[in-house]
Write a structure and sequence with these properties.
five-stranded mixed β-sheet, nine-stranded mixed β-sheet, NDP-sugar epimerase, includes UDP-GlcNAc-inverting 4,6-dehydratase FlaA1 and capsular polysaccharide biosynthesis protein EpsC, Rossmann fold, disordered C terminus, alpha/beta, 607 residues
């Protein structure tokens, strides 16, 4: 109804309530049916007028009674009490007495009937309109401030489809107590049992302070149930108003496998990037584009986006321009790093202060079938880019490498190891600081297992895993990119920085988690083992035994000890690869890349 209609309705109802309260009070006080007299009439008119005046003053008629609380109750108390006081004052003036018993009983009835008429609607909504059996029974993980806020919001939302049933919390002081009328039924270990006992269909994790390991532990318990698991939005999104408390999101694989973020040294990064010219090769790829995104936050003078694919470079340019406006000068270069003269032209044209070299072929099975492409792109392309940077006196050159470069068994890993040797060799005689940064798999990158698993799940399965014991290191793309940028500020020249990848993850466990996160069961989708592919290892390493440094140079960043370089052998491969058979080329690459484990090689060059 309209506000005018609503006001008229409340005016009539309250008038009836006031007159009824006075009539009943007079009857109870005088014990006679002849209750209409001058004192009663004077009291009735005074209370009636006072009630409406004070109701308008304190906005009693504007309250939304579906969400009435103690605040509204206090307003009713104030309006009723002031109305009775006005009646008392007029009785004293005109009658020279105050009928205390009449006014006291009237106050009680007035308070009871006005308050009851308002709160009866909320009771009706909660008990009749809220048909809880048609709602999704929900278990809330975390009975802290965030969890109680979520529970209160769900209880209030008449139109919502979630019905909170109970809390789970590891705090023994809260267990077996009721919070907002909901019991705390146990700790994390009780999730599966409580879900079955209470017929829970939906679980919401509401603990913003959880680290990744704790979240993973809770999710594994939730995964034992058939309930859907959701998580509270990010705290910063709630504070900034981007999302509401009730807008829960699905648990993502990044939540389970990513690690808690490391604070970046903003000052050192600003010194190396702010107001400088920065070039990113492979800027259309997963890592290159994220490095470009994060660099824009430091306001470089100019950012050159270089890549071979025009569509991907166009996309990242448009995205960065949209978010950065005109404060950064963006330039795009469609170029192949295998083109030596083109790379030299680009370096001379822009004279970059920092180069992040992310362009590379990274797909292991593809490179096994096309080893000559790995040589052209990963080895020759890196040499072209590094030599051009050296001749144009670039300040810092950061090459993105991989854990597969350690004791490589694949063409891709071997080619990246030789590329590391090339930049280390050029660093010996260059004014440019050349470094390499190694890390493992990044979540969601092109060619990674996660997009493949998601497609297989969408098609109904099965999800294919090569081996039940296959393990890999994982890191989110933003975290890897941040640490790459940070490693560039630590460069003295010649280092191989290694990012702390945390604990390795079994690929089969990753597949099972993705199936569960998609809302399916393992029985519906299934996991199928296909056997290890050529060039794959069961586990990856980040440093060889003779490269290991135990001390971190920055949180989650290690620097490997430099080892021997085999430049004569690398040059031989570069000059001969075009005429080699694929099998022979692969053998040559692996032999040179693994020479660090040999001793007394005459072509070894100490760093």
């Amino acid at each position: 109804m309209t506000y005018r209609q609503r006001l008229s309705l409340f005016f009539v109802i309250d008038s009836c309530i006031v007159l009824t309260a006075i009539f009943i009070s007079s009857f109870l006080v005088n014990a006679t049916i002849h209750v209409i007299n001058i004192p009663v009439a004077l009291t009735s008119i005074t209370i009636l007028i006072s009630h409406h005046l004070f109701s308008i003053k304190y906005k009693l008629y504007k309250k939304f009674w579906e969400y009435a609380s103690t605040k509204e109750l206090l307003i009713i108390l104030k309006v009723v009490t002031l109305s009775i006081l006005c009646a008392s004052l007029l009785q004293l003036i005109f009658l020279q007495e105050i009928q205390f018993r009449l006014l006291a009983v009237t106050w009680l009835l007035h308070m009871f009937l006005i308050g009851g008429s308002r709160f009866v609607w909320r009771l009706y909504r909660d008990s009749v309109m809220n048909k809880q059996d048609q709602k999704i029974r929900t278990l809330i993980i975390g009975a802290g401030s965030a969890g109680t806020m979520v529970a209160r919001q769900l209880i209030k939302q008449n139109e919502g489809n979630l019905h909170p049933v109970a809390f789970i919390d590891d705090d023994p002081k809260k267990q077996k107590l009721d919070i907002l009328g909901l019991p705390v039924v146990g700790g994390v270990k009780d999730i599966a049992g409580s879900t079955e006992e209470l017929n829970i269909d939906n679980i919401i994790i509401t603990i913003p302070s959880l680290n990744r390991k704790e979240l993973n532990t809770i999710f594994q318990e939730c995964a034992k149930t058939k309930a859907t698991t959701k998580i509270l939005p990010l705290l910063e999104d709630l504070i900034t108003g981007k999302v509401a408390v009730s807008q829960f999101r699905d648990v993502q694989v990044e939540d389970l496998l990513g690690r808690d973020p490391v604070d970046m040294d903003i000052e050192s990064i600003s010194e190396s990037i702010t107001g400088k010219v920065v070039l990113v090769t492979g800027a259309g790829g997963s890592i290159g584009s994220e490095i470009a995104r994060q660099i824009t936050a430091f306001n470089p003078k100019q950012l050159i986006l270089l890549g071979h694919g025009e569509n991907s470079i166009y996309d990242i340019e448009m995205e960065l321009k949209e978010h950065s406006g005109s404060r950064i000068n963006f330039r795009t270069e469609i170029a192949d790093i295998q083109d030596e003269s083109k790379m030299m032209t680009v370096m001379r044209r822009y004279q970059p202060d920092v180069v992040y070299h992310a362009a590379a072929h990274k797909h292991v099975p593809m490179m096994e079938r096309n080893p000559e492409e790995a040589v052209k792109n990963n080895i020759i392309g890196t040499r072209n880019t590094a030599q051009a940077a050296d001749r144009c006196n670039v300040g810092v050159f950061v090459m993105i490498s991989t854990d597969k470069a350690v004791n490589p068994t694949s063409v891709m890993g071997a080619s990246k190891r030789l590329a590391e040797m090339i930049v280390q060799h050029i660093n010996k005689t260059s004014n440019t600081k050349f470094v390499a940064v190694r890390f493992g798999n990044v979540l969601g990158s092109r060619g990674s297992v996660i997009p493949l698993f998601k497609k297989q799940i969408e098609k109904g399965g099965p999800v294919t895993v090569t081996h039940p014991d296959m393990v890999r290191y994982f890191m989110t793309i933003p975290e890897a990119s941040r640490l790459v940028i940070q490693a560039g500020t630590l460069a003295h020249g010649g280092e191989i920085f290694v990012l702390d990848m945390g604990d390795p993850v079994k690929i089969v466990d990753l597949a099972k988690n993705l199936i569960k996160l998609s809302g399916n069961s393992l029985e519906e989708i299934g996991v199928e083992f296909t056997g290890i592919r050529t060039g794959e290892k069961l586990f990856e390493e980040l440093l060889q035994a003779d490269e290991v440094h135990d001390k971190q140079v920055y949180p989650k960043i290690y620097v490997g000890k430099t080892t021997q370089l085999y430049m004569n052998a690398i040059e031989t491969i570069i000059t001969r690869y075009d005429g080699m058979e694929s099998k022979q080329l692969k053998e040559e690459l692996l032999m040179v890349a693994n020479k660090n484990s040999l001793r007394g090689n005459e072509d070894a060059i100490p760093v």
